[in-house]
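agent> fetching stored inputs for the nicotinamide-adenine-dinucleotide docking request
agent> found them:
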Amino acid sequence: MNVKTLGLLGTGVIGGGWAARAIHCGINVIAADFDPTMEKWLRDSIDNSRQALSQLTEGIPLPPPGKLEFTTNPLEMAEKSDFIQESVSEIEELKTKALLPVSEVARPEVVISSSTSGFLPTDLQKDLKHPERFIVGHPFNPVYLCPLVEIVGGKLTSEEAKDIAREFYEDIGMQVLMVNREVPAHIANRLQEAMWREILHMLNEGMATTRELDESIVYGPGLRWAVMGMNQLYMMAGGDGGARKFMEKFGPTLTMPWCNMDGPELTEDLLDKFEFGTNQQAKGKTVRELEVIRDECMVAIQKVLAKHDFASGKTLNAFRARKEKQWR
Ligand SMILES: NC(=O)c1ccc[n+]([C@@H]2O[C@H](COP(=O)([O-])OP(=O)(O)OC[C@H]3O[C@@H](n4cnc5c(N)ncnc54)[C@H](O)[C@@H]3O)[C@@H](O)[C@H]2O)c1
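agent> prediction call returned; pasting tokens
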């Protein structure tokens, strides 16, 4: 299916990121949010992402940017869309209520995808009209620079809907991870959550500050995670003996008290520590200023990886090859 118009339901941080990526790739966007003040926010966030997106796709032949239309009426959006991406707040009831009328108006062949961070597609699709075209398409922030999207089907989802979603996401430069079994929080968020809970425990119990916790990632494992994942890296840490040798060396730690898995209670004291610590780390920079630094570095990392045709750089090279075939 050729997606000419992407419909967005919810235009916050994630909806804004989808809009920026799609428009940059020449797709028209009709964005619906029940809060009319979000139009300005959305237009600003698209403007803010333009420079990083242009740098990332420098030299890649792309059609002229798509156009943006904003509406407070989700049904108008549903009527005009060839593919719908829902990104309303992470409340299950709110999502199912918002999706139902959209599914009643959208053409039956239009795929409806949810950006949900953790809900199961089977739960979200059960009352929808044509539930077989419903999937989860879970992205990462910033959506315009992070290529990963996890596609998860529910019990009623058709293979065709997943294929259409894959084709569309690859067409806007994304790396599709087909999640074969639906579980709460899919794959990547389960991993992030395990680490996040441990971070909050350590902060809560005064073992480390937000700065120390972040430095332990940025100067250490974070640097290698853009290149390889934990399994491949740990196999290498086994030396010539590989995976088995690694487990021989570090397997015994799995039974030691090295981490907590239950999240701590969110007390005011913990919230204060998180807020105070991260504000200190920001050294007076606004979120927008921090985003510019983050974006420039994320672009540079992906360009270096592209030279090695590795990890997200390989996705960028595949996007270039696809667009060269389409537009040259
Ligand atoms: N923030 C992240 O890092 C992240 C990453 C991946 C996925 N997600 C998921 O994406 C979704 C959106 O997250 P976000 O961070 O952009 O949230 P957000 O709060 O920034 O934006 C949600 C938007 O949805 C709008 N909205 C709420 N109910 C609506 C309705 N019924 N109709 C139309 N608009 C409605 C709100 O006005 C708001 O603008 C959530 O499901 C979240 O779990 C978030």
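agent> quick read of the result: Residues 5-179 form a domain with the Rossmann fold fold (CATH 3.40.50.720).
agent> awaiting further instructions
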